[in-house]
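Give me the 3D structure for peptidylprolyl isomerase.
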Amino acid sequence: LQSNKEDNAADPLLCIITSPPCFPPPHPPSPFRETPASSPIISATFPHPSSSSLSSTRSSRRTLSVSIATTTISSLILSFYSSALSKSAINTDFFDLPNSGGVKALDLRPGTGATPVDGDQVLSSIVVIHYYGRLAAKQGWRFDSTYDHKDGIGEPIPFVFTLGSGKVISGIEAAVRSMQVGGTRRVIIPPSQGYQNTSQEPIPPNFFDRQRLFTTIFNPTRLANGEGSTLGTLIFDIELISLRH
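Predicted structure for peptidylprolyl isomerase (245 residues):
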């Protein structure tokens, strides 16, 4: 574990792309367990206990408390250790998406539903997704998320687009094209498949986030210094919610 920590510290991008998925699980497990309602709690009252009896009872209670605390700590350590192993196990699961221009993908959760259709505008799918968008050049700065866009009752508003329309950056279209409904995929998008101009979606609705994103990607000084491959690298976690033709 120490070796993995040192390796990740040496490579900030590796830390970003191997971080846990942004989407919370439907029913996150808790390391703490309450006493089941069905488990009876038995107590008894003894009149006029002797001092030796009280001392023995207190000692038993201390021993029981220490035992429970030790068991709880051990369970937490095992839980965190298992989590670390799970994260290290996905480090090598990225693969190149065919005909994507260099987009790399990792399926965090495979889908079981339909796959989008990418044809002409009549046959193409209208795709509904949730996403977290991060910028590698800013140490994984999350510049936009559909979960931050709320409707009138506080529900997150998904992002909707037509596959093949050209309005969305190529890297997201390449990622969604081979996904199935219900799946979640993490993609590393190179600059050539990311933002080529400021009109391509998805665009952060917050003006300052939008300005920060584009002034970083299209920074003329840093581009002239040969930092283009670093500035425009994007990391998206995409969840395919639904689609229609």
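Confidence is low (pLDDT under 50) at residues 1-6, 27-46, 84-91. Let me know if you want a second pass.
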